[in-house]
Amino acid sequence: MKDNTTAEVIIRVRGLKNQFGSHVVHENLDLDVCRGEILGVVGGSGTGKSVLLRSIIGLQKPTSGSIEVFGIDVLADAEAARDTLDERWGVMFQDGALFSSLTVRENVEVPMRAIQGLAPTLRRELADLKISMVGLEYLAGDKYPSELSGGMRKRAGLARALALDPEIVFLDEPTAGLDPIGAAAFDDLIRNLSRSLGLTVFLVTHDLDTLHAICDRIAVLADRKVLATGTLEDMLGVDDPWVREYFHGPRARAAFKPSSPDVASGEDP
Ligand SMILES: Nc1ncnc2c1ncn2[C@@H]1O[C@H](COP(=O)(O)OP(=O)(O)OP(=O)(O)O)[C@@H](O)[C@H]1O
Fold first, then answer.
1. Would strands 89-92 and 38-43 be described as parallel, antiparallel, or unpaired?
2. Closest residue by CA, ligand 1 atom 2
3. At the N or C end, where does the chain have fewer CB atoms within 10 A?
4. Distance, CA 70 to ligand 1 centroid (Å)?
């Protein structure tokens, strides 16, 4: 999903302002998210990426502005909107945010408990299905979060975010704290789930590899607003000091470097 000119906008943020005391985090922030895309939200530390995510899902009441998700005004009545929308989106916070006293399976079952008439045996089977979808072995369902590695906890958090077959998943720094191999595997998982389930993914990240590997579009937060949106290629042409530093710096060059054909083919140079 790269062409957003004809795409259906399912999240529409307009004129968003978030202010804490005298600290204005967002002002006149506009953003569209289109169905089926993987949108990477980047920006310097403290630019308000998490506050934006929390505003969209109704956990943070903005100072002003409007936010529509599937055409529903999230701010008009946050509680009513959440009741309607909670089944249509899933959220994975940075550390997985699992209940430590529940097993992985029980964690995944938590959102399903809201479904009236869903028999416990079916709920359990559905939870096991989600657990396998995120690449966790079957036995992981019986484990407690403390018994899992960081990468497994993230996968468990993703399984819970997928519990109600959402149309959108919000991921807050999904690869933070993972080693490069684990992070690449998690990127693959997100891309495969997005493609196979038609999921829209709103992904806050600092990870240049993730942007390069899976994001259809990037939104850069700077100067209290969305400074630029577009493909990775578009970002390379944005004339802004932070954007230049971020997308042209040495780490970016390493992440975006095309793999050498010699290395890819395994042949000697
Ligand atoms: N509930 C709150 N009360 C007061 N200030 C807050 C609150 N939530 C966030 N902030 C402030 O808003 C700013 C943006 O925070 P946010 O966590 O969204 O940044 P971020 O872009 O996600 O940063 P990072 O990349 O470091 O995670 C920060 O200065 C933070 O201290």
1. unpaired
2. 20
3. C
4. 26
Q: What is the ipTM of this complex?
A: 0.97
Q: Is 130 in the pocket of ligand 1 (CB under 6 A)?
A: no
Comparing C-alpha atoms, which of 256, 194, 246 is closest to residue 34?
Answer: 194
Of the residues 49, 53, 57, 210, which should be mutated to test ligand 1's pocket, given the most ligand atoms within 8 Å of the CB? 49
How would you label 102-137 residue by residue, b for 16+ Cβ within 10 Å and e otherwise?
A: ebbbbbbbebbeeeeeeeeeebbebbbebbebbbbe
Q: What is the tens place of the pLDDT at every residue in 91-130?
A: 998 766 889 999 999 999 999 998 888 899 999 999 999 9
Q: Which domain holds residue 90?
A: 39-59+86-256
**Number of folded domains in the chain?**
1
Kindly state the tokens that stand for 52: 């934006």
Question: Measured from the CA of 21, which atom of ligand 1 is nearest?
Answer: 4
pTM, full prediction: 0.89
Q: Whose CA is nearest to atom 4 of ligand 1?
A: 20
CATH of the domain at 124: 3.40.50.300
Q: Is residue 152 in a domain? A: yes
